[in-house]
Amino acid sequence: MRMRLMLLGGGNALGQALIRLGAEEDIGFLAPRPPKDGWDVPSLTQLLDDTRPDALVNLAYYFDWFQAEAPDAGRLADQERAVERLAELCQHHQILLLQPSSYRVFDGSRATAYSEKEEQVPLGLRGQALWRMEQSVRAVCPRHVLLRFGWLLDESPGGLIDRFLRRAEQGEELMLADDRRGNPTPVDDAARVLIAVLKQLDCEAPLWGTYHYGGHEATTTLALGQTILGEARAYRLALTDNIVPQPHAARPDAADEPQHAVLACKKILHTFGIKPRAWRAALPALLDRYYRHV
């Protein structure tokens, strides 16, 4: 890798997966430790003025965007300002910007898979914030890759899988939507995609724009939950089997979470040659990491 790579958010689950995979391929990242209160406009300005990498992967706010149960409006507003400033700095210093985004920029009314050309009509606070961040990156920093991921799965304490398994261990009734669909995407697979994109950008291929990636085989939240529990029983036998199907419209997060969140991944395949991988195959390694640290 000829480019000097910077990673913001090297301590979170996706950042750690990216560092692990990069090390296997002899790809290193500058991964500065964030300030006590997290990256903000002044600290980002100072960082990039001092370091000036060739490319930057922005996972600084990964947990809030992809794993937090309830987003905080104030934090999201601060992060919007920080991302806009980051885009300005990348443009000023001619740094390539890899910015993650999410299926949440869509409203979920489309029963077929969303392509990159579909209109974005985000539902909740998080989706609306991510949509505005996408817009500011496009407007300010032409040399960018916006990568929208499907349902990201990781071992984060307090993350989606952690919350689900803790409820299962307590014997709670688990109500899951049987008509809500998406692409489960383990973080190891998401890291693989980021590395593949960086490799081609390192070859000075001007492949800027917006791309979708999600794990192979769209599924429902009900089927995903059943699969996770099946794998988790290798570590914890006393997990509830009281899973109750529930319509999306009856779920407490129905106003914020798209019912149909399947992403079409043809563009990233045709542009970068990145093929979707089966999400089920990555679950055992993910749960092994989770139970080693729980």
UniProtKB/TrEMBL annotation:
One Gene Ontology cellular component: cytosol
This entry's comment on the bound cofactor is: Binds 1 Mg(2+) ion per monomer.
For activity, the cofactor(s) needed are:
Mg(2+)
List, for all copies, the residue spans of the domain called RmlD-like substrate binding: 3-291
Reactions that this protein is recorded to catalyse: dTDP-beta-L-rhamnose + NADP(+) = dTDP-4-dehydro-beta-L-rhamnose + NADPH + H(+)
Keywords attached to this Swiss-Prot or TrEMBL record, sorted alphabetically, are:
NADP, Oxidoreductase
Gene Ontology terms: biological process: dTDP-rhamnose biosynthetic process; O antigen biosynthetic process
Highest rank taxon of the organism:
Bacteria
What function is annotated for this protein? Answer: Catalyzes the reduction of dTDP-6-deoxy-L-lyxo-4-hexulose to yield dTDP-L-rhamnose.
Q: Which family does it belong to?
A: Belongs to the dTDP-4-dehydrorhamnose reductase family.
Official protein name in the record: dTDP-4-dehydrorhamnose reductase
| Source species | Zestomonas carbonaria
